[in-house]
Amino acid sequence: MAAPTKTDSYGYGYGGYKGSRSPVAEAFRVLRTNLQFAAVDKELKVILVTSASPDEGKSTVVQYLAQAISQTGKKVMTLDADLINPTLHHRFGIPNERGLSNLIVGDADSTVFTTLKDYPNLSVITTGPIPPNSSELLGSARMKHLMDRLREEYDVVIMDTPPILPVTDAVVASSLADGVILVVQAGKTRGGEVRHAQEVLEEAHANLLGVVLNRARRRVNDYYYTRTYGAYSTEPAKPEETPSHP
Q1: Which residues of 69-78 are buried (b: 16+ CB within 10 A; e: fewer)?
Q2: I need a surface site. Which of 56, 94, 127, 166 has the fewest CB within 10 A?
Q3: What CA–CA distance (Å, rounded) separates 152 from 149?
C-alpha cells in the first residue's frame, strides 16, 4: 500500500522526500554518513531511537533516517516499538490493526510486515494493539527471538521507542540494540533532562551513539534562518539561542 504524501511541521512530506535537496533531506544524509563512521569498530545492525521526554521529534527522525539509509540500497526494517503512543503508522500512512504486539504473543507472522512502494528497500512493522504490559513484552524472550530474526533478514533495523524519562521501555529495549540515538528538541528539552536520560542509558550499559538536535536554527545565508534537523554529536544539547539579524 503506497503511503500518501503528507507534510510535517517542516513542510516536508513523505512522498516528496525521495531525492530531495531540502535542508532536512541533506541533514539526514549527514546523519547517515556519521552512523557509517560510528560503525567502524562495531556493526550497527539495530539502532534504537528515543528521546528524554515526549514530543521531541524522535518518530520523525526514525522515518527520515530509515528512508535515507534505504536509498543506499540497504534493506531496512523500521520497527515501531513505542507500545504506548505509536505514530509511525500515521507517518507512513499504513494500517495498524496488527503488528509488533501480535508478533510477540505469537498471534501473527510476516504478513504484518509492510513494504513501501516508494521505498522498496524499506519495510515497516507497526505496533499493533497497545498492550497493558509494554515493558514486559519488550523484555521478553520472544522479543529477543524476533530481533534475532530481523538481524538475519535486514541490513539495518531502526527501532522507535517511548521517551526515556516517563517509562522504562526504551531502557529495556536498549539491550537489543547495537547503538542508541537520543533526540533532543532545541529550545524545548532542558539540559537536566538530557543529562538524566544519558545517565539512565549509561546505567543500562547502552551504547549511546550521540544526540540528534532537531528544530535548531540553521543559518542559510546572512539574511535569514531556517529550522531543520541539526547537530549529531555526543555532547549534550545546548538550549536554543534566538539569533539577532544583522
Answers
A1: bbbeeeebbb
A2: 166
A3: 5
Assess contact for 42 and 178: CB atoms under 8 A: yes
**pTM for the complete prediction?**
0.81
The H or E element that residue 50 is part of is strand 46-51
**Spans of all domains in the chain:** 38-222
Q: How far apart are CA 160 and CA 170, in angstroms?
A: 9
Domain 38-222 has CATH 3.40.50.300: yes
- Whether residue 234 contacts residue 210, with contact meaning beta carbons closer than 8 Å, is answered with yes
Q: At what angle do helices 58-70 and 23-38 cross, to 10 degrees?
A: 80
- Write out pLDDT tens, residues 113-171: 999 988 999 999 999 999 999 999 999 999 999 999 999 999 999 999 999 999 999 99
Q: Pull the grid cell for residue 162.
A: 517511548
